[in-house]
Amino acid sequence: xxxxxxxxxxxxxxxxxxxxxxxxxxxxxxxxxxxxxxxxxxxxxxxxxxxxxxxxxxxxxxxxxxxxxxxxxxxxxxxxxxxxxxxxxxxxxxxxxxxxxxxxxxxxxxxxxxxxxxxxxxxxxxxxxxxxxxxxxxxxxxxxxxxxxxxxxxxxxxxxxxxxxxxxxxxxxxxxxxxxxxxxxxxxxxxxxxxxxxxxxxxxxxxxxxxxxxxxxxxxxxxxxxxxxxxxxxxxxxxxxxxxxxxxxxxxxxxxxxxxxxxxxxxxxxxxxxxxxxxxxxxxxxxxxxxxxxxxxxxxxxxxxxxxxx
Length: 310
Fold this sequence. Notes:
Blueprint: E1 2-5, H1 13-29, E2 33-36, H2 43-52, E3 54-57, E4 69-71, H3 78-86, E5 91-93, H4 97-111, E6 115-119, H5 125-131, E7 139-141, H6 144-147, E8 158-162, H7 168-181, H8 195-208, E9 213-217, H9 223-234, E10 239-242, H10 250-253, E11 258-263, H11 269-282, E12 286-289, H12 303-309
Parallel strand pairs: 1-11, 1-12, 2-3, 2-4, 4-5, 6-7, 6-8, 9-10, 9-11
Helix pairs in contact: 8-9
């Protein structure tokens, strides 16, 4: 069996930064530190941080007075940030800088009197955070078909922003529909699309032409991981989203000569290596990497931890 690894795959810079923030906070302030929601969407990452002393909670009222508090990489609504401030909780914000950039853009559009349309998936933590950062809220659309049903205050004073875990390919039809219905709508440049989302999707499209089946390592609640699996299916390659090596079903790879492996932006490389080991336990495996973009993006830690970083 040939195993072809997608490049790039796995952790993006925003996820690496979020994990570094939790580990840095534990090193500087000691255990426990409290994290609102999963720091990133991956069980292995969360469990390893929990073992080190991180406590994951759903709401701020679960956090004791004065405890170090970390916001997840997905970002939080303004009401959450305000509630933490009112309680004087020492907060370290692990919001991905690219998500924070979307917050800033949406707020700028709102300040200029434009009604903001957010392209994203209802219920996703990032969407909830972005929606809650815009005074008056946003109009949410997920598909081009939903654009026709939008009820706006002034069609000449609109702007749109996008969920970062959607790629240019994911949003192009919705943006085209918005521009067709509202010709004067404003929006960010394509440079603002998350580089990691686009790179991983582009690589999976290339991978699909090389393999008989695709295994995507990632959490079931990870938007970008699910999208990687969907892309493989759209290209008529059987594709499966797996939490770890134990999730592999032998029927998927029976008689298969070429297996492609990718991983969502929240999935650690350790999980990918465990998948390879599982395949090697079944039979002889030849591993190779599919040439792709080399990512060199790094994000600075927040000021609360910079002294330790230096």
